[in-house]
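Narrative of accomplishments. A recurring question from our advisory board has been how the design workflow behaves on a single, concrete structure rather than in aggregate. To address it, we present the structure tokens for one chain from the evaluation set, followed by the sequence designed for it. No filtering or post-editing was applied between the two.
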């Protein structure tokens, strides 16, 4: 099983939670293809609203992938993003700052936001446990 972080604005995360899905990297399938049924996915929201909403800097949702491969949907005539289905856990939005020192994937604690520029990336079990405990505890 692999653990993932997906960097997405809170308004887009909320749409995904309501629809029980995730998208990544502006609807592209590349990172979604790497995910497998049972993988954990944590959503980090740098902003409340895409693209220039108020800064948020919080973990906003957590769940598990429940399908076997990405599927494509039509959102508009010229936008057909890929998605994965997710079972979301009940959780509380959790600011990242109190967790930074405990998270191993943040190597430079002074420039902690750099890692999120990659959109979707893997984290280890320790980091998932820290985040999941903070969000669901």
């Amino acid at each position: 099983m692999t653990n993932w972080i997906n960097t997405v604005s809170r308004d887009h995360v909320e749409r995904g939670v309501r629809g029980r899905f995730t998208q990544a990297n502006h609807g592209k399938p590349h990172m979604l293809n790497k995910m497998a049924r049972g993988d954990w996915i944590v959503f980090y929201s740098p902003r409340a609203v895409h693209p220039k909403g108020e800064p948020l800097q919080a973990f906003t949702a957590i769940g598990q992938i429940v399908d076997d491969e990405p599927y494509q949907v039509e959102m508009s005539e010229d936008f057909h993003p890929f998605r994965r289905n997710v079972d979301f856990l009940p959780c509380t939005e959790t600011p990242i700052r109190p967790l930074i020192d405990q998270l191993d994937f943040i190597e430079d604690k002074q420039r902690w936001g750099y890692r999120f520029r990659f959109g979707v990336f893997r984290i280890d079990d320790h980091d998932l446990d820290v985040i999941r405990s903070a969000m669901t505890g």
